[in-house]
Amino acid sequence: MPDNRITEKNQANWDSYSAAYLRFKHSEKIIHEITQDPSRAFEKGTWQQLRSRFPDLRGKRVCVPSSGDQYAVIAFALLGAEVTSCDISQNQLDAGQRLARELGLEISFVQADTMELSPLPNAVFDLVYTSNGVHVWLNDLPAMYRNVQRILKPGGVYIMCDIHPFQRPFGEKLTVVKDYDNVGPFEDEYCINFAWRVQDILNAMADAGLRFEHMEEMHDQKDYDYPFWLSLEDAVNGVVVPPEEVDRMYDWQQNPEMALPQWMCVVCRK
Ligand SMILES: C[S@@+](CC[C@H](N)C(=O)[O-])C[C@H]1O[C@@H](n2cnc3c(N)ncnc32)[C@H](O)[C@@H]1O
User: Which of 99, 120, 168, 190 has the fewest CB atoms within 10 Å, i.e. the most exposed one?
Assistant: First the structure.
């Protein structure tokens, strides 16, 4: 069952963090890149999975739960889809609404808990997509996937890309900070989160009646705007990392973190 205390604490945290978060995420440079080339809103392997199933998104109904920075939402709308953007944080949705208005895009913004998606009707979406940093805030993945399945049309597709669970036991320089099987909850003053394993995510999908189609385990790409190894603060402050340091960070023999995949993409169908 969704736990209201967890959801409300995380919602308050995202509402207060939203402005600082989006100062970087909605920078002119990044938004310009996405409007010029909507594929920039997606990790490359995930984009290929999306494109192979939806070569033409015009007129398709797409839902993006826990939409956060709205990159995918904007990209789907630019590609002609009819998009519903859901998030628990009204501030994140309001910022998305402002951005959509600036770009002249018609998008529906709906406040909804991803574990319930209660304002959304059954069996209306061709595609449900979730991006990185979604599962970590949710205490009940089976509830999330029952509702993803509920809102998909028969034959509809769910695609996710998130941080690979194999990253979760490690801190900086591969210091082990927790056991893989310790999924949380982890609570601090501001928020409560979880470190779900591959089995927690895949079993929640299967138990909800979603049929597994494909999985990719991917490495960070050098041209990614916000590399996994750079803090958001450094990214916001435009910290310039010397090219030789960037090369070092992407070489697994010099940076063992690169020996494990950073991202996981899963495709399934109702
Ligand atoms: C890290 S973002 C993920 C989206 C996007 N990939 C991004 O990087 O911005 C996390 C988002 O999940 C939202 N969120 C947290 N808990 C939620 C819940 N229970 N239901 C819906 N959204 C939730 C937060 O408000 C935030 O906008």
Answer: 190
